[in-house]
Amino acid sequence: MTVFADYAPWYDLLYQDKDYAAEASFVEARLRAHGIPSGRLLDLGCGTGLHALAFARHGWDVAGIDLSHEMIASAKARAVEAGLSIPFRQGNACETGPERDFDAVVSLFHVASYQTSRDALAAMFRTAHAALKPDGLFFFDYWYGGAVLAQGVETRVKVIEQKPLRLTRIAQSDHDEQAATVTVNYTLFCEDTDRATIRRVDEAHHMRYWFPFEIDAALAASGFEPTLHAAWLTEDAPSSKSWAAYTVARKRGTP
User: Fold this and answer.
1) 28-37 per-position pLDDT tens digit
2) CA–CA gap between residue 239 and residue 246 (Å, rounded)
3) In the chain, which ranges are continuous DSSP H helix?
4) DSSP string covering 136-195, please?
5) What SS3 class is residue 224?
6) 21-30 — which CB contacts under 8 Å span 24+ positions?
7) What is the CA radius of gyration of the chain?
């Protein structure tokens, strides 16, 4: 099963509480602090396009790539509805495409942790490197290994009601410490309360957590100079308090 193939129609509703605009503003501030205040920006693993739209509204010249046909279809429809011209295309973040001469590449909501091997992570980094101008910036987030190991995994249930729809998502996780991976098994019950119908969707998302030293090694091998590791939405060092961390790296030379 392709990840997000059946999950995509419900994705934005499940993450309706996620503040994409605030996250984009935070990323912009970090890019600005490292010398890139505006310009051309590639969203690698753009999902349904909500981050990309936020960057475009702030004046960036944005393009987006995602592996999921369904997510890209949603992103394109959303851009048209917003009156924004954003070239979204279906593509693999681990395969270098035609994108070139971008000032910044961002990869948000843990796309790096969907790369479950060092080779896959390095391939994603090479895609970003190829898309950037010399001295361009690469900003991405990931699951921080120290927090995953400290907190452990647990079963989580999320319920969202938007009449006549009621969504119940159960997330059960299997942790493989030897492989540094977590498989999140999602079961989604989509209930139409007016029609008294229920649809069940099952998807397994295979994720990997990373440590800064692993990130640094892959970046260096891919032609980047790491400049910052921090906990998500802060400038503090990654810690056991938050699974989410981010890195800023600068393109240097040829890998």
Assistant:
1) 999 999 999 9
2) 12
3) 8-14, 20-33, 50-57, 69-82, 118-131, 145-151, 212-221
4) EEEEEEEEBHHHHHHH----EEEEEEETTEEEEEEEEEEEETTTTEEEEEEEEEEEETTT
5) strand
6) 21/54, 21/57, 23/51, 23/54, 23/108, 23/233, 24/51, 24/54, 24/55, 24/58, 25/54, 25/58, 26/233, 27/51, 27/55, 27/106, 27/108, 27/139, 28/55, 28/58, 30/139, 30/228, 30/246, 30/248
7) 18
What do you get for the CA distance between the two ends of the chain, in Å? 34
Residues 61, 84: Cα–Cα separation, whole Å: 10
Residues in the chain: 255
Question: pLDDT, tens digit, for every residue of 194-235?
Answer: 888 999 999 999 999 999 999 999 999 999 999 999 999 999
pTM for the complete prediction?
0.94
* 24 neighbors 43 (Cβ within 8 angstroms): no
Single-letter residue type at 158:
K
Residue 216, amino acid: D
Q: Rounded to whole angstroms, how far apart are CA atoms 24 and 247?
A: 15
Burial of 35 (0-12, 13-18, 19+ CB in 10 A): exposed
Distance CA 78, CA 235 (A): 32
The pLDDT assigned to 109 comes to 96
